[in-house]
Amino acid sequence: MSLAAYCVICCRRIGTSTSPPKSDTYWRDIRNIIKFTGSLILGGSLFLTYEVLALKKALALDTQVVEREKMKSYIYVHTVSLDKGENHGIAWQARKELHKAVRKVLATSAKILRNPFADAFSTVDIEDHECAVWLLLRKSKSDDKTARLEAVREMSETHHWHDYQYRIIAQACDPKTLIGLARSKESDLRFFLLPPPLPCLKEDSSTEEELRQLLASLPQTELDECIQYFTSLALSESSQSLAAQKGGLWCFGGNGLPYAESFGEVPSATVEMFCLEAIVKHSEISTHCDKIEANGGLQLLQRLYRLHKDCPKVQRNIMRIIGNMALNEHLHSSIVRSGWVSIMAEAMKSHHIMEASHAARILANLDRETVQEKYQDGVYVLHPQYRTSQPIKADVLFIHGLMGAAFKTWRQQDSEQAVIEKPTEDEDRYTTCWPKTWLAKDCPALRIISVEYDTSLSDWRARCPMERRSIAFRSNELLRKLRAAGVGDRPVVWISHSMGGLLVKKMLLEASKKPEMSTVINNTRGIIFYSVPHHGSHLAEYSVNVRYLLFPSLEVKELSKDSPALKKLQDDFLELAKDKNFQVLNFVETLPTYIGSMIKLHVVPVESADLGIGDLIPVDVNHLNICKPKKKDAFLYQRTLQFIRETLAKDLEN
């Protein structure tokens, strides 16, 4: 204002003068105007420059600190004083208003120019190498599903970032992105934060006692009678044992406490394992899963998982429970918050096929972005376990015998060298699951599923006073689970061993009677039977003790050559197979199987393994090794691979 007034006075003086001004007076006035104007411009420029630099410093990361700490898993942020006295003054108010104005300009320009750093990612200063991180984060939260999946793929394939950049993603990504990264084969484990701290145990309590309390808190309804019986038994025995040994140490398989006396007849059983196995069955019921989550089960199970890293059986049961809970989408946020995704991302990279497959089931049930199917307890995808761009054109299903398992039944034939060395990483020398190791490489366009019907409670049911489960019951249960996993939506080849073949036959017969299961029948292309007793087994001719050693008593009765159920199953299936033109391949053992050191038994003779259609190929192995090739180029595997390729030739070409 003073400068303007001075200029006006000078102009009036010049304009009202009656005589021509002197030259020196005129130029003196001009110089004064220039001095004042120049001083104002210079001062204003300096002030604006200072404010812009201050604003830039306030909104930019301290890159020097980041560079010094780039190998740390956290980012430094400047602290702000909470002393209100420091915020007084006109200069502070002016700076505050200027900062607001700049932010509004940035927001407006972002909207107009569609700046990629709009919304939460707006900034005044960002280094070039940081752009990719924030762009991918923004892309992963896009409304376009294709863009989200592409962002996750690009993140997983990035291996040149610094540690703190991975941590930025870990802290800022949403659950969908986190699960997608966990299911991406090349993802760096630095994308996953450590699980949150677990709550402290209650005073005078232990993990075992809290596990028993968790089981006691669950409803005892909607369970079969055998599970109710053994749940009650586990609770009563654990209560007595814990009371008697209060203050003592009790660990899985440890030496702190002896087994409960009443459990002496059950091999390798402890009260804790009884509780876990009972909780597995509870977790198959949605409302019971809600109770497990509400009562802190996710945290308790995580504590047990950490404590028993050296006990695979405990960890498998825990992962079965988490996998069952993941079937309920309303529990996904709780599972993610409790840190299970980070734990499973690490387990997915395990060289132990069983551990990786359990983790793959959990993450597949959590991944609703790319997986429509739901994998219930006992249904494991061996390939592909990660997200893949490879189109899947057909399914191959593996069904083990009653005393087998989803993984160990399909291992490579044991050799003395393999048993001694136990190579877990060199799959070319020995594989613990040839369908995953060999077949997945030879036929990458297949989805390979291995099924495990519940044998974890078989020792319990040997003493269960209630009725046992029959082949018909198990086949209906498996058929329901496989349909939920999408079996029938693609062409299918079934591969079965021993009594697993009887289950396959029964499942297909049941599917043929149900309209909603018609796709299973229509898409079945072929079946491989490894020593399946279509016409009964010599096993039933032996003593009760030997029969119990191999199969539960009810199934052994159904194996008798004069069993009406077995004869009807054979006749009905043979008619169905001919009508639907199923391709069939039969293998049969020619060597006896040693049971212990005293008993030698030819479990399935050649005449019993002959279905009546398809090739019948005798192999010089025993009953246990008929489905375990010695090596990849062995006849047993190569003939199996040839059958799969020929049966699915048209489907794999399309």
From TrEMBL:
Its main location: endoplasmic reticulum. It is a single-pass membrane protein. GO terms for cellular component: endoplasmic reticulum; mitochondrial membrane. GO terms for biological process: phospholipid biosynthetic process. Keywords: Endoplasmic reticulum, Lipid biosynthesis, Lipid metabolism, Membrane, Mitochondrion, Phospholipid biosynthesis, Phospholipid metabolism, Transmembrane, Transmembrane helix. It is found in: Endoplasmic reticulum; Mitochondrion membrane. InterPro entries: AB_hydrolase_fold, ARM-like, ARM-type_fold, SERAC1. Belongs to the SERAC1 family. Facilitates the transport of serine from the cytosol to the mitochondria by interacting with and stabilizing Sideroflexin-1 (SFXN1), a mitochondrial serine transporter, playing a fundamental role in the one-carbon cycle responsible for the synthesis of nucleotides needed for mitochondrial DNA replication. Plays an important role in the phosphatidylglycerol (PG) remodeling that is essential for both mitochondrial function and intracellular cholesterol trafficking. PANTHER family: PROTEIN SERAC1 (PTHR48182:SF2). This is Protein SERAC1.
